[in-house]
């Protein structure tokens, strides 16, 4: 990438048009059902795209030095609507990407996928940038909280946003 260029402003006119925002928003949900990276990949696979970047936010077994045994995510009633708005925002911000995202709610075990995203684009730099931006926007805007259950028998609520 050339020094000084704003990647968001760079779109190769020789690349095929991927459609309007509505065509490029492939999936946006907050769900109590398990989700896998493969699910989101299927949503954005496209022969016009040479790059597909995913993010799989997994429940880990620790937090700030304490053992975590499971989580419970609670989603505000507006979470699905806000998730759709976040995915749409990314599609508007990056006119050359296809976007999909899903955040789980309910009881999750260590190793379960909590947030899964996929972004496809004609070129890798754009796919990486848009995927990172998508994850940051979900974390900042979608109202979901987690109740962490620790190995010592205690638990605490933590805002998953912000």
Rg over CA atoms: 17 Å
Low-pLDDT residue spans: 1-9
Shape: elongated
Largest sheet: 5 strands, antiparallel
Helical percent range?
25-40%
Quick one: how many beta strands? Answer: 9
Helical stretch tally: 4
Return the average pLDDT rounded to an integer: 92
Q: Which class do the helix and strand fractions yield?
A: alpha+beta
SSE sequence, one letter per element: HEHEEEHEEEHEE
Description:
The model is unreliable at 1-9 (pLDDT under 50). The two termini are 30 Å apart. The chain is an alpha+beta fold and 162 residues long. The longest helix has 18 residues, at 124-141. The protein contains 4 helices and 9 strands; from the N terminus they run αβαβββαβββαββ. InterPro entries: MoaE_sf (IPR036563), Mopterin_biosynth_MoaE (IPR003448).
Summarize the structure.
By secondary structure, the chain is of the alpha+beta class. It has helices at residues 21-24, 37-44, 79-93, 124-141, and strands spanning 25-31, 51-58, 62-63, 66-75, 98-104, 106-109, 113-121, 144-150, 155-159. The model is unreliable at 1-9 (pLDDT under 50).
List its traits:
elongated; 162 residues; five-stranded antiparallel sheet; alpha+beta; disordered N terminus
Topology:
Elements: H1 21-24, E1 25-31, H2 37-44, E2 51-58, E3 62-63, E4 66-75, H3 79-93, E5 98-104, E6 106-109, E7 113-121, H4 124-141, E8 144-150, E9 155-159
Helix pairs in contact: 3-4
């Amino acid at each position: 990438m050339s020094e000084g260029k704003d990647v968001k402003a760079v779109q190769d006119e020789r690349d095929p048009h991927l459609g309007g925002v509505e065509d490029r928003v492939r999936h946006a949900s907050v769900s109590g059902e398990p989700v896998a990276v493969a699910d989101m990949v299927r949503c954005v696979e496209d022969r016009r795209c040479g790059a597909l970047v995913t993010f799989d936010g997994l429940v880990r077994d620790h937090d700030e030095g304490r053992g975590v045994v499971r989580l419970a995510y609670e989603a505000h009633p507006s979470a699905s609507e806000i998730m759709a708005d976040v995915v749409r925002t990314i599609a508007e911000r990056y006119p050359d990407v296809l976007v999909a995202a899903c955040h789980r709610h309910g009881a999750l075990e260590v190793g379960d996928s909590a947030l899964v995203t996929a972004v496809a684009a004609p070129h890798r730099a754009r796919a990486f940038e848009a995927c990172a931006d998508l994850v940051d926007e979900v974390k900042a805007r979608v109202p979901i909280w987690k109740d962490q259950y620790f190995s010592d028998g205690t638990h605490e609520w933590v805002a998953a946003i912000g």
